[in-house]
Design a protein that fits this description.
Layout (H helix, E strand, L loop, with lengths): L16 H17 L4 E7 L2 H13 L5 E8 L8 H6 L8 E8 L3 H17 L1 H7 L3 E7 L2 H8 L1 H5 L3 E5 L6 H4 L7
Parallel strand pairs: 1-4, 1-5, 2-3, 3-4
């Protein structure tokens, strides 16, 4: 299967827009060139962009890596993220890309991400030692800045941050529908 090729049951690719595509290529390059523990903080302006980035990494991980999703089914599960990261066994020959994301109401997400980031901050050295993987913490666009504010020790070991903006609307979506009388 070619890079980003989809099966017939999957939705068509979502255009990330010029800036989003550039961010994605930089993220891929970082993952391809990295080794051992790395922390990436990714903020997304829209959930469909997060899903597209996750899909692309899962469908065609950068060379030398394997993909593993760490779905956090609800905001309250975020508090267990440190333990769940530590429980992921390392890949036998390649590094894992662990993509952690949660869905829920923004107010709930913000409260639970705050708690989870503080917990990861407290366990920073343990997490680095127990999780020799590339970890992508992904969520709303405010997530990287929340990490900066509430988890300074964790922030100090981040590899990179990426903020994926909503792509501009295509011209055909901007055109006013024809009204016939």
């Amino acid at each position: 299967m070619k890079r980003n090729q989809r099966t017939e049951n999957e939705p068509p690719p979502f255009d990330l827009g010029r800036d989003g595509e550039a961010h994605f290529e930089r993220l891929r390059a970082c993952l391809e060139n990295g080794q051992g523990f790395e922390l990436f903080l990714c903020g997304f302006d829209a959930p469909n962009i997060l899903l597209e980035v996750r899909h692309r990494l899962a469908a065609a991980p950068p060379p030398g890596n394997v993909f593993e999703a760490l779905p956090l089914e609800s905001p309250d599960v975020l508090l267990t993220i440190a333990e769940r990261l530590a429980a992921i066994p390392p890949a036998s020959t390649r590094r894992k890309i662990v993509f952690a994301s949660a869905v829920g109401w923004e107010e709930d997400l913000k409260g639970e991400w705050t708690k989870a980031l503080r917990r990861l901050n407290e366990r920073r050295n343990i997490t680095i030692h127990e999780c020799p993987n590339a970890v992508i913490l992904s969520g709303p666009s405010w997530l990287p800045w929340l990490a900066h504010d509430v988890a300074p020790d964790l922030w100090s070991v981040r590899t990179a941050i990426f903020t994926f903006p909503s792509p501009p609307a295509s011209p055909d979506r901007l055109a006013a529908p024809e009204i016939q009388s």
